[in-house]
From TrEMBL:
<comment type="similarity">
    <text>Belongs to the ACC deaminase/D-cysteine desulfhydrase family.</text>
</comment>
<keyword id="KW-0663">Pyridoxal phosphate</keyword>
<dbReference type="Pfam" id="PF00291">
    <property type="entry name" value="PALP"/>
</dbReference>
<dbReference type="InterPro" id="IPR036052">
    <property type="entry name" value="TrpB-like_PALP_sf"/>
</dbReference>
<dbReference type="InterPro" id="IPR001926">
    <property type="entry name" value="TrpB-like_PALP"/>
</dbReference>
<dbReference type="InterPro" id="IPR027278">
    <property type="entry name" value="ACCD_DCysDesulf"/>
</dbReference>
<feature type="modified residue" description="N6-(pyridoxal phosphate)lysine">
    <location>
        <position position="56"/>
    </location>
</feature>
<protein>
    <submittedName>
        <fullName>Pyridoxal-phosphate dependent enzyme</fullName>
    </submittedName>
</protein>
<dbReference type="GO" id="GO:0019148">
    <property type="term" value="F:D-cysteine desulfhydrase activity"/>
</dbReference>
<feature type="domain" description="Tryptophan synthase beta chain-like PALP">
    <location>
        <begin position="28"/>
        <end position="304"/>
    </location>
</feature>
């Protein structure tokens, strides 16, 4: 059986796109709906992995696949001091015997930031504090250029959030996974799909994947990261579109049976961002309280936090107020807590 719904749709891709079965991976993730709010559906990407879930674990299966195919044994990436991406990299790298180094930039302190830092340390990642986000990005590229000049090839340089071709492909795959669930009658065709946007791979992949899978759903991203880093655009409709174009070109070059397709215009909302990355917003706080009160048909509890989820939930509430059909929240935040309680015991 194929691990990937994208490979089910295009079998020739299976030999062309490497994929690693990360220990604990549990994909497809279930869908459920709210018992309290009509039209509200939820895609459980909080449960992508039994050790540490969330959207980063979905991306890493394809990222580790590429590394394995290229014989790379080290992963270098960056994120905020409370980076969920860093936690996913540290935890799953350890399980696969890969060395992991994470460059960190300052992020407002919170309980979840503190816990994530502790987990990254405990799972043996090498952590380096670099100060501002801009400084961290410059350090990342300097190290990468240095390695290239010395022709060192063992390290995979992975952009923050796992934003890479493989990260986008993981979410194209996720859209095909949703289509299979719709075909099996597990959920209706969503009118709208909503996700938070940090490094953009989730939005880029879902937007491409929904179009490629022929679903009529509108995908809405909610920007929670700065649009520009110093003078450089970092999270804008144009940067999302660039990532989509790069992925489209790569996929068509593979010649794995995907027909030529047009790139849809990505939709990303700016007005829920508030005062900064990781800075809680009033609308977000209110939406979190509403979200925590929802009872879900599968009886599971879901988590939320202020950096990503709360701001996307504020959008979700506003969308539900005017929706004429099902609205699917793509729940990108890990909800598996085991690694945190172990951390407390140390
Ligand atoms: C990283 C992250 C996102 C953003 O996903 P991108 O693909 O980087 O845009 C959203 N939600 C959570 C909980 C995350 O950790």
């Amino acid at each position: 059986m194929s691990l990937s719904p994208l490979f089910n749709a295009y079998p020739a891709l299976q030999k062309l796109i490497p994929l690693v079965d990360i220990p604990g991976q549990q994909i497809p993730t279930p869908v459920t709906h709210s018992l309290d709010t009509p039209q509200l559906w939820l895609k459980h990407d909080d449960l992508t992995n039994a050790v540490y879930g969330g959207n980063k674990s979905r991306k890493l299966a394809f990222i580790f696949g590429k590394m394995q195919a290229e014989g790379k044994t080290r992963l270098l990436t960056f994120g905020g001091t409370g980076t969920n991406h860093g936690v996913a990299c540290a935890v799953h790298s350890k399980a696969l015997g890969i060395d992991c180094e994470i460059l960190l930039f300052d992020q407002p302190e919170s309980e979840s930031v503190r816990k994530n830092l502790q987990v990254m340390q405990r799972y043996g990642a090498t952590l380096r504090y670099c100060g501002s986000l801009l400084n961290t990005v410059l350090r990342f590229y300097t190290l990468q250029i240095h390695d290239r000049l010395l022709r060192r090839k063992q390290t995979e340089y992975l952009f923050a959030g796992g934003s890479s071709l493989q990260g986008v492909i993981a979410f194209i795959d996720a859209a095909f996974e949703l289509r299979e669930q719709i075909e099996r009658g597990e959920c209706p065709v969503p009118e709208t799909i909503i996700c938070p946007v940090g490094s953009s791979a989730t939005l880029a992949g879902l937007t491409l994947g929904v179009a490629l899978a022929g679903l009529p759903s509108r995908v809405i991203g909610v920007r929670v990261a700065p649009a520009h880093l110093g003078p450089f655009p970092a999270c804008t409709v144009a940067t999302v579109k660039q990532l989509m174009q790069k992925t489209q070109q790569y996929l068509l070059r593979l010649q794995g049976g995907i027909p030529p397709f047009n790139i849809p215009q990505p939709v990303m909302l700016d007005q829920y961002y508030g005062a900064g990355y990781g800075v809680a917003s009033a609308a977000g706080n209110q939406a979190e309280q509403w979200f925590r009160k929802q009872r879900w048909a599968d009886g599971l509890t879901v988590q939320s936090e202020c950096t990503y989820t709360a701001k996307a939930l504020a959008t979700l509430r506003d969308e539900l107020a005017t929706a004429n059909g099902p609205v699917l929240y793509w729940h990108t935040l890990n909800s598996v807590q085991g690694i945190y309680s172990e951390a407390e015991a140390v």
